[in-house]
Amino acid sequence: MKKIIIIPAYNEEENVERTVNAIQKSAQGFDYVIINDCSIDNTRKICEEKGFNIVNLPINLGIGGAVQTGYKYAYENGYDVAVQVDGDGQHDPEFLNTMADYLIEHQVDMVIGSRFIEKKGFQSSITRRMGIQFFSKLIKVLTGKKITDPTSGLRMIGRNVMEIFSEDYPRDYPEPESIVAVLRKNMKIEEIPVVMLERQGGVSSISPKKSIYYMIKVTLAILIERIRN
């Protein structure tokens, strides 16, 4: 069973070495690949000096393009399991083997690490929690499946979903939309509890000014995805 961690990185010079060290310590049995999304800081320099496994994108593709590149890499290199771990230090690699065991033992297509099942660790801001609850209810209405943490980037998938995502993946703010895409194909998604940390550095792509655009864009994308043939 070949397993790989996809680390999308844009201007993560403060965190990328810490993230790789945590993976090597806590996620034995996993390979990793850093997808450097045309960072303008020292992310690439640090990775190359440390000998990290890195793919350097020639232009900035955004989070969706970076993660899709990771899925393409994983699929084309014969991996059976792929998991996204953000490069900002929020995702704890300690939970990855538990997620892999659950994916395999329960024969599901995607496992999401949810911070809201046991409500431990960093729970995000009140404003973001309201948005997360909205998307959770919207997905429930449209698919019948309750997902407590639909914006979680800590998602593990099997090879069947990997193939789909390597060919078609949302460009930006992809998590809720891609969940609906998987459910629309009658695939199985389950959540397990995890503990997430506060961002260790860098800047979120969803600023207060972009929050309204984010809500409208993702809502429309989910609705469109639900009715696609």
From TrEMBL:
Keywords: Transferase. Pfam families: Glycos_transf_2. Residues 5-162 form the Glycosyltransferase 2-like domain. Gene3D superfamilies: Spore Coat Polysaccharide Biosynthesis Protein SpsA, Chain A. InterPro entries: Glyco_trans_2-like, Glycosyltransferase_2, Nucleotide-diphossugar_trans. The keyword Transferase applies. GO terms for molecular function: transferase activity. It comes from the Bacteria. PANTHER family: RFBJ PROTEIN, UNDECAPRENYL-PHOSPHATE 4-DEOXY-4-FORMAMIDO-L-ARABINOSE TRANSFERASE-RELATED. This is Glycosyltransferase family 2 protein. It comes from Dorea formicigenerans.
